[in-house]
Amino acid sequence: MIAKIFKSIFPEISIDTMLDAETHALPIKEYALSELSAKQILPDLFEANCKLFTTAKIFNDILQRKKNVEIKFLGKKKVANCTLVILSDTAQIRVMFRQSHAKVFIGAKCEGKFDIRLNNLKPKICVGDAVTSRGIHIAVHGNGISIGKQCLIGEDVVIQGHDAHGIVDIDTLELVNSEDSHTVIEQRVWLGKRVMVLPGNRISQGAIIGASSVVTKDVPACSLAVGIPAKVIKHGVTWSRSRYKVDDECRDFIKAL
Description:
Layout: H1 2-9, E1 24-27, H2 28-34, H3 38-41, E2 51-54, H4 56-64, E3 69-73, E4 83-86, E5 92-97, E6 103-106, E7 111-119, E8 124-127, E9 132-141, E10 145-147, E11 152-153, E12 157-160, E13 183-185, E14 190-191, E15 196-197, E16 202-203, E17 208-209, E18 214-215, E19 223-226, E20 231-235, H5 248-256
Parallel strand pairs: 2-4, 3-5, 4-6, 5-7, 6-8, 7-9, 8-10, 9-11, 9-12, 10-13, 11-14, 12-15, 13-16, 14-17, 15-18, 17-19
Antiparallel strand pairs: 1-2, 19-20
């Protein structure tokens, strides 16, 4: 079931995750009614076809530990055809819906805090397995955001799927930033504390982005980029979760290059 749902939402993305897991489905409005913070969620503003999909085990854990998943509504009218897939029972996830046709996928074994704001129509976000977040803020719009497996994300990181407001050419009165862009962070990327990733950029696998950097263009694989705007200062490097040794995850990644 999850494999079918995932391929229908993200046909362009190949991801290594628990796509063969058995699933449990629940309308988001019913989940909202079960939440301690139901007054904030306004369940009547979600149509019945807005659904949460997760494994049976994780579903039971969510109901027993309601704090792990928080669903909020930011719009002014009912939303429809929204899909929320959560395979992680350890992450703390807050999802804020604004309009219809939003699609969210959170992979297995993710840890930490994920703050996801779904802006405008048809936003999409995919987070792969085993992503660790110390406090990421994601604003999703249109073509969406993809985060690969085993990424490490520091505190107060911001990933923008759009510019939020229009930039107007004074001579032509045309919007110069109206097109939606797909923002991609590939597998095993380390984003340092307070990094900002601007719309439409790709950070390739194994890369490292230094603290407080602003990513304004693509970053190549296995490189270190720092600064505002972020510039590559070293190639042929990647990262290990341990400061004191090269861990098995890092060794496996390098071996597969």
